[in-house]
Amino acid sequence: MPRLGLGVWRAKDGEETENAVLAALEAGYRGIDTASLYDNERSVGRALKASGVARDSVFVTTKVWNNEQGYAETIAAFRRSLERLDMDYADLYLVHWPVVGKYKDTYRAIEDLYEQGLIRAIGVSNFNIHHLEDLMGSCRIKPMVNQVEMHPLHTQKKLFAFCRKEGIQLQSWRPLMQGRLELPLIGELAVKYGKTPAQIIIRWHLQIGAITIPKSSKGQRIRENADVFDFELAPEDVVAIDGLNENRRFGADPDHIDF
Ligand SMILES: NC(=O)c1ccc[n+]([C@@H]2O[C@H](COP(=O)([O-])OP(=O)(O)OC[C@H]3O[C@@H](n4cnc5c(N)ncnc54)[C@H](OP(=O)(O)O)[C@@H]3O)[C@@H](O)[C@H]2O)c1
């Protein structure tokens, strides 16, 4: 699984998503994160075909949306996603949110699809520790990934440690706080390392062991966000960024979802 991928939430279906995916593939990205909800799976599939990059060298993630959860519903939702992507398999399929009363049946369907060879890796998203414990109490295949909101203002230390202990890879969504990059420490580090604030934050995600999926629709930012492999943050700078944590979410709290 590539450690850095492109997120495409809120990239419009059509040219915007296609151009972003093409720019990313050209810049060397080999991971794309979409979802049934994002309504742009068709464009992801089209861009991948147009790029000429081999299907098996790209890692495509998609997710089952909340109103598609349940066993039979998930099997059907997955088939619709594959059809829109115009692919024979997905690399990673996630339960998008822990819909109470549904997520276990949803995950059981995903396990079956995995066993049929239609998905290369399976997991969940927005699961807190208690959701994971509950699921792991009955699932056959432990989730391989948990994709959650994580960034310098919400470092998810406890959840991260739990996932690490259980061998579940943590993947960070909203890694750039949706572009809220004006934190003084990040600015200072940008000067120190001669990098941009976004690059400092993405590098922090990678150095703490997260897999991350920053979103941009702009070619220049897509390239900027991937230009993070030529420097390393000193351990004390990683710790300093950890210290920015305020347990502050910009997205929904998985324990209180109403969608
Ligand atoms: N599992 C879930 O529930 C869930 C929830 C939310 C998101 N996600 C996934 O995670 C991905 C990333 O999260 P996100 O899209 O919410 O937020 P994000 O990646 O933290 O931030 C994206 C925003 O930051 C801007 N940006 C990107 N690079 C920048 C740079 N170098 N400098 C300044 N601004 C920059 C983008 O604007 P431009 O596009 O204009 O450049 C966009 O508005 C999503 O696209 C999606 O794939 C998953």
> How are the strands of the largest sheet arranged?
1-2-3-4-5-6-7-8
Main sheet properties: 8 strands, parallel
Please identify which CATH superfamily we are dealing with. Answer: NADP-dependent oxidoreductase domain
Name the hetero compounds present.
Answer: NADP nicotinamide-adenine-dinucleotide phosphate
Tell me the radius of gyration.
18 Å
Can you tell me the number of structural domains? 1
Q: How many runs of DSSP E, i.e. beta strands? A: 8
Summarize the amount of helix as a percent range: 40-55%
Strand fraction equals 5-15%
Determine the structural class based on helices, strands and strand pairing: alpha/beta
Structural notes for this entry:
- This protein has 259 residues and is of the alpha/beta class.
- It has one domain: TIM Barrel, CATH 3.20.20.
- Helices cover 41% and strands 14% of the residues.
- The protein has ten helices and eight strands.
- It has helices at 15-26, 41-51, 71-85, 103-115, 129-136, 157-166, 184-193, 197-207, 219-226, 235-242, and strands spanning 6-7, 31-33, 59-64, 90-95, 119-125, 145-149, 169-173, 211-212.
- Strands 1-2-3-4-5-6-7-8 form an eight-stranded parallel β-sheet.
- Strand 3 (59-64), helix 3 (71-85) and strand 4 form a beta-alpha-beta unit.
- Helix 1 crosses helix 2.
- The longest helix is centred in the first third of the chain and has 15 residues, at 71-85.
- The protein is globular.
- The site of NADP nicotinamide-adenine-dinucleotide phosphate (NAP) has 27 residues, from helix 9.
